[in-house]
Amino acid sequence: MSIKQLVDDSISSNKVAIFSKSYCPYCKKVKKLFAEEFPNVEPKIYELDELDDGSAIQDYLYQKTGQRTVPNVFVASKHIGGNDDTQGLFKQGELKKLIIGAA
Ligand SMILES: N[C@@H](CCC(=O)N[C@@H](CS)C(=O)NCC(=O)O)C(=O)O
Question: 91 is in which domain, residue-wise?
């Protein structure tokens, strides 16, 4: 499977997909948000620093979204952005709507 296929498939087949790095504090915050606020949703999490293809995945995400940083979050196949974007969407009540809509 190509990197493009792997990333695109995981975005379309998971309600929440998070491309993360295990040591990244912003990633920890966004993973905590989902775990605490949406405990019934199990995000698909890729720790890019622990994967052989992690750099290639990060390159493809940059090509796809214009965002190189992690976390890079997708909900209901929609690109949300990083931790700041995700927390902002949550505070507006829009993250819940997206998740419910994807049920
Ligand atoms: N404002 C961003 C900050 C994200 C950020 O700075 N992430 C760092 C890791 S902690 C990053 O991606 N650095 C580049 C890299 O790891 O390739 C957010 O809220 O997501």
Answer: 3-101
Query: How many Å apart are CA 30 and CA 76, to the nearest integer?
Result: 16
- Counting from 1 in the atom list of ligand 1, the atom nearest the Cα of 84 is 19
Number of domains in the chain: 1
How many angstroms is it from 3 CA to the middle of ligand 1? 21
Q: Convert the pLDDT of each residue in 42-75 to its tens digit.
A: 999 999 999 999 999 999 999 999 999 999 999 9
Distances (CA, A) of 80 to 44, 60, 65, 95: 15, 16, 10, 9
Q: Is 67 in the pocket of ligand 1 (CB under 6 A)?
A: no
pTM score? 0.97
